[in-house]
Amino acid sequence: QVQLVESGGGLVQPGGSLRLSCAASENIFSVYTMGWYRQAPGKKRELVATITSGGVTNYAYSVKGRFTISRDNMKNTVYLQMNSLKPEDTAVYYCNAAAMLRSYWGQGTQVTVSS
Asked: Cα–Cα distance between 93 and 66 in angstroms, integer?
């Protein structure tokens, strides 16, 4: 069973930066697409960014140019660098690992952007 552990959330002022981390329990990047999702109260969960096993990235329009997804294969860790944060980025952020027949989720980490 794959386990995902997220960290790095917190409180930040508008315009600030945070880096989220998602540590996997085993080497999975060769077969899984990794992604970050977020959900705010009263809102549907939405995709933020993904990176495939081949290294191809994709971003939601709302975060393009501000967020960057990356991975460290040696550490079995995927990152989300968030810059120029806005109040509307406030949400619980979840890490996801997806293959053809299986998917796994992290526990979520709270990101709050407020002055």
From this structure: 16
Tens of pLDDT along the chain (115 residues) come to 899 999 999 999 999 999 999 999 988 888 899 999 999 999 999 999 999 999 999 999 999 999 999 999 999 999 999 999 999 999 999 999 999 889 999 999 999 999 9
Q: CA separation (Å) from 91 to 5, 69, 86, 101, 111?
A: 17, 17, 11, 28, 6
**Cβ burial 15-49 (10 Å sphere, 16+ → b, else e):** eeebebbbbbeeebbeebbbbbbbeeeeeeeeebb
**Spatial separation of the C-alpha atoms in residues 57 and 48, rounded to whole Å:** 11
Does residue 48 contact residue 39 with C-beta atoms inside 8 Å? no
Q: Considering just the CA atoms, what is the radius of gyration of the chain in Å?
A: 13
